Amino acid sequence: MIELKSAEEVDRMAVTGQFVGELLAELSGVAAVGVNLMDLEHHARRRIAERGAESCYWDYAPSFGRGPFRNVLCLSVNDAVLHGLPHDYVLRDGDLLSIDMAVGIDGWVADSAVSVIVGTPDPEDLKLIEATEVALEAGIAAARPGGRLGDVSAAIGEVAHSYGYRVNGEFGGHGIGRTMHEAPHVANDGRPRRGLKLHPGLTIAIEPWFCRSTDRIRFDADGWTIRSADGSRTAHSEHTVAVTESGPRVLTRRPTHGVTPAEPTGKPATTS
């Protein structure tokens, strides 16, 4: 069942979205050469607790994972793209890190992800991240009342193909609101003018993710971490978006300035 949210409920989701966006921006600044993934995880745990928020990941236990997840961040490095289980790993120069988080505040959830390069960027990694970001913006632009869900999926897929990347159909975006995963599924490729009609009050997480040279994936032995099947690098971008009468409203937009990283060390992370 798909629940359309009232304008007031979307505003309440936007409160959560602002916190998620600010914390992702902060974590992107903390991520640096020499920083352990578990430092990022514990940093996020502190911030979430201080805000009085609740992680949607902590008790997350889908059929494919060895759950519950028992962490508040998905931290995916290099060829890992989704559901990266935080572990004892020290970031190295040139690593491509994807940070994904979802939290609830006062019963309303927001979900977002960003990919950054730690230290010295590889141009091909910058291109890959750029592709996910451009695809995300294209998907957002298509999330307009009167359109179809296929318009969103087709916009994402068109960008992926224009950059020369293939699209995996197993994991994509999703409805969101009172819980992290609601209907409908939002595929990262599709046909325009097909599928669910978009009405004001629909809230969805749009999340393009691409691998550099494959559309196939494999799971780590931990049951969670999803990697490109051929070991090529990956990237992931995501926002929570509301369809409104006046068009799409991004609820998790990250601040472009004004976020002070907490005690970063080494070289700062960079994005495209």
UniProtKB/TrEMBL annotation:
- Annotated ranges, domain Peptidase M24: 13-245
Annotated positions binding a divalent metal cation 1:
D100, D111, E238
Provide this UniProt record's keywords sorted from A to Z.
Aminopeptidase, Hydrolase, Metal-binding, Protease
Q: How is the cofactor bound?
A: Binds 2 divalent metal cations per subunit. Has a high-affinity and a low affinity metal-binding site. The true nature of the physiological cofactor is under debate. The enzyme is active with cobalt, zinc, manganese or divalent iron ions. Most likely, methionine aminopeptidases function as mononuclear Fe(2+)-metalloproteases under physiological conditions, and the catalytically relevant metal-binding site has been assigned to the histidine-containing high-affinity site.
SUPFAM superfamilies the UniProt entry points to: Creatinase/aminopeptidase
The UniProt similarity line reads:
Belongs to the peptidase M24A family. Methionine aminopeptidase type 1 subfamily.
Q: Which cofactors go with this protein? A: Co(2+); Zn(2+); Mn(2+); Fe(2+)
Q: Which NCBIfam families match?
A: met_pdase_I
Region of interest (Disordered), residue spans: 251-272
Pfam families assigned to the protein according to its UniProt record, in alphabetical order: Peptidase_M24 (PF00557)
Q: Which reaction does it catalyse?
A: Release of N-terminal amino acids, preferentially methionine, from peptides and arylamides
Primary role: Removes the N-terminal methionine from nascent proteins. The N-terminal methionine is often cleaved when the second residue in the primary sequence is small and uncharged (Met-Ala-, Cys, Gly, Pro, Ser, Thr, or Val). Requires deformylation of the N(alpha)-formylated initiator methionine before it can be hydrolyzed.
| Documented EC number(s) | 3.4.11.18
Q: Which residues cross the membrane?
A: none
The record's note on quaternary structure and interaction partners says: Monomer.
Organism the protein comes from: Micromonospora cathayae
Name assigned to this protein: Methionine aminopeptidase
- Residues engaged in binding a divalent metal cation 2: D111, H174, E207, E238
Instruction: Enumerate the residues binding substrate.
Output: H83, H181
Q: List the InterPro entries hit by this protein, alphabetically.
A: Creatinase/aminopeptidase-like, Pept_M24, Pept_M24_MAP, Pept_M24A_MAP1
GO terms of molecular function: initiator methionyl aminopeptidase activity
